[in-house]
Amino acid sequence: MQVYLDNAASTQLHPEALKEMLPYLGASFGNPSSIHAFGRKQKAAIENVRRSIASFLGAKSSEIFFCASGTEANNIALKLAASDLKVERILTTELEHKCVLNTAKYLQDEHGVRLEFIRTNTFGQVDLSDLERLLKIDSQKTLVSLMHIQNELGAVNDLNAIGTLCDDHDALFHSDTVQSIGHFNIDVKESKLTFLSASAHKFNGPLGVGFLYKKANTPIGTWIHGGGHERNLRSSTENVAGIVGMGKALSIAYQNLDEDSVKMGTLKAQLKQGLREINSSILFNEQDGQSTFTILSVSIPNELIQDTFTIQLDMAGIAVSAGSACTSGASKISDVIKNLNLNPDCSTLRFSFSTFTTIEEIKYVVDFFKKELSK
Q: Which end of the chain has less Cβ packing within 10 Å, N or C?
């Protein structure tokens, strides 16, 4: 049996999204910047998706910009905030995705932007009182950059509360929502977001396409120079097929939002219960009610497993992410796990779910652990 439980890394392309893409990989091949009928058809497809995404976020279509990935969207937001909006200070956490953390460190090292870290709790959730403290003590132009959902542990941050604090202290607010778009309702106005980043392959869309939300009247300039595509922010002929697939996948995700959240939440609870019944010393790196239904981070005492455990998982057809897992000959610990000092005598695995995950797959995984941990 093949079981894919690494959906926080990338999801299966939805068949309906693929179906929507196929014409744009074949017969519909015009350049969307061309003024003839072939080009106009491509342009119309792009703008339909732009309007659709905007409607899901409570945004204007003019505030949505297409790009190649969440990583690129994060880079655009942080680097142009520094260069064009004259941001002098970035507040973030040490648990952000590398594309945010390394970009912020680059801006500190190369452009003199001050970088300060907000405290988090044991499982990666932002300490709002510490954020408020940092916002109060300095009047420099500040960008707060915080992911909505911590990608390894699944801790959910309160975007509306963070946005209110930023608004009260005239700070800009950027959120990497790669793990939450398509799974949670987000209203960019209610959250008072200046920037939001997303990537299609996290919600059953295609690889290699994403988008940036930029609040209206936020005067940033050009990221990629050229022919002036994406309203002069990012010149480059648009990935029409990818954008269309992303739009269809996101539309399906929002259509099934409530149903999928219950389904995935139930599967997560069943996996959690199954592992707990195998051995009570297995730990779950989350606070009840404070973690996403899409991710379960599990720490297994090293004394229970062999150092080739991740290889055994793979050989059994089970795909998960090793946040801190024993491998043949070495132990690799993620920076997030290391920073939080989470269960140092354990190996940590991340299970992540999608709309395509089944109860049969969860049972197969539990049976595998039952067999292996009893050795």
A: C
Query: pLDDT tens, 199-234?
Result: 999 999 999 999 999 999 999 999 999 999 999 999
pLDDT single digits (tens) 94-151: 999 999 999 999 999 999 999 999 999 999 999 999 999 999 999 899 999 999 999 9
Residues with Cβ within 8 Å of residue 305, at least 6 apart in sequence? 326, 347, 372, 373
Ranges of each domain in the chain:
3-10+257-373, 15-255
Pick the CATH number of 15-255 from 3.40.190.170, 3.40.640.10, 3.40.50.410, 3.40.50.1860: 3.40.640.10
The answer to pTM > 0.70 is yes
* 326 is a catalytic site residue: yes
Selecting among 67, 166, 326, 346, the annotated active-site residue is 326
28: number of Cβ within 10 Å: 15
> What is the fold, at CATH topology level, of the domain defined by 3-10+257-373?
Aspartate Aminotransferase, domain 1 (3.90.1150)
